[in-house]
Amino acid sequence: MRIGTLGYKRDAPLYEGLPYARRFARYAALFDTVELPSTRNRVPSWRTVSRWRARAPEGFRYSFLAPKHLRYTPSGTERRALRRFLRRHRTLGAARGAVRFQLPEDLDPEAFAAWLQLLAEVGIPGEYAFETPRADLAERVLEAGHAVVNHPEGPFLYLIDPPRLPEARGYAYFSRLEDALHALKAKP
User: Which residue windows are coiled coil (predicted)?
Assistant: First the structure.
């Protein structure tokens, strides 16, 4: 189980006295992954992704949060946006973690089933996790071979603020740095 936080640019005692440019090195010395919430607001540039890849120590993984402008209904525009985003993520190479998709609550199940087919047709395999409170959508996600956020089953686990860490393959991200540090100490 990889352990990290939702973003690493925090004002915390962990970084006390460090210039901003050296904070990531301190973070990566402790954790082996980070979810980058900034990717929800805009697709990062090729230059930014290349810089992230170059800075990642061996074994480190960056997970992305899918763009908020995705509608989860199949269309040519959706296909292009999804492909553009996933190509940037793929550019991370060995530093590529998972992608978390946050599904809207009012999503039509049939449209989402077609969107999952569109995801397969885009042809960029990866570890994809979907966040939804709806059992019908979670079932479709699992049937398509992807993970459901905070769900105990699937091809891998993608956990947000878990109360404890299971012995499994996956990612555990914490909102608070202190909770992530505690999870590191308690890691099985």
Answer: none
